[in-house]
Amino acid sequence: SAAAPIKKKPIQTLDAVLPINPWDGEKIEIAQYIWGDGFCGPGGPDYIVGLSKLLSLSPEMSMVQLGAGLGGPARTLVDRFGVWVTGYEESQQLVDAGNELSKIAGVAKKAVLKHYDPEEHEDFDRQFDRALSKEALFSVQNKAGIIRSVEEKLKPGGLFLMTDYVVANESVYAKDTYKQWRVGEHVNPCPNTADEMKKMLKDVKLQVRVSEDISDDYIKLINRAWAGADKVAAKLAKEENGAALIQTLMREAEFWSRRKRMLESGDLRLWRFVANKKASLATGMSDW
Hints:
By secondary structure, the protein is of the alpha/beta class. The chain has helices at 25-35, 45-51, 72-81, 92-104, 143-153, 176-184, 194-203, 215-226, 229-237, 242-265, and strands at 62-66, 84-89, 111-115, 128-134, 154-167, 206-213, 268-277. Strands 3-2-1-4-5-7-6 form a 7-stranded mixed β-sheet, sandwiched between helices.
C-alpha cells in the first residue's frame, strides 16, 4: 500500500527544459505507487538490503549515497543497519520530497538528502566509511571526477558499491535502437562500457573486488513492479486529478518499457561494482 502522496504543485516549466529531471508532484506520486513508498525506481527495501550485504554496515558508520531519489534506499539502510546516510540527488524536487519523508519517518538526522550537480561537484562535506551509487552516473559526463571525489573522502578501508547502466560495447552507440532510447530518456544518457567504469575506479587507486552483470535480476524487478499497473490505474481513476495521473502513469510505463527492451537486447546492461580503498598500514595489516 502506498503512503499518502506528497502534494506538490506541478512545475510547469519542466517539460520545456528537458532533459532536466522532470519530477513534479504527479510523477512523484506515480513513482511510489509503482516502486513502493519512498522509492522512484527499481529495487525496494529487500533488494537494497541484499545489494548492500557486502558493505557490512553498522550504526557506527557513515555513508554517502549518489542518486538518492526519494531517499527510500537511505531510510531502508538506516532502519536495518543504523548507518548514518547523506544522500546526494540531482533533482531538487526529489530532495525536498525525500527530506519530508525522512522527517515523517523520524530519521531526518540519519537520512539526509542534499541537492548537487554531479558535473560540477568537487567535494563532499566530510569523510565517510561507505559509499553507494545507484544508477546515478550513466547520465554524467564527468564520471571520473565524481568517482575521484568519492575516493578522496572515503576513509581508509572504506567500501564503494556502485550499480549503473553500461553499454555492452562501443558499437552500440551507432545503433538506431540506442539513439531512439536516448531520445526517450528524461536525462542525457552517456553510459560507458563496464571495462571503462572499472578503469575509472582503478585510476583513483580503488581496488575492484566485484564486477558483475546483474541485469537479469533488475529486469525481473521492473516486470514485478509494472505487473500491478492495472490496479494502480484503477486507484488513480478515483482521485480528483485521476485523468492527469493516469496519463503520467502511461508515460512512465512507456519509459520503463523502452529501458527494459534495451536491457533485454543486451546492448544496455546493469552492472554492479564493489571497490575498496586500501587500509592504512596502521589499521589494515591484512592488506599486506
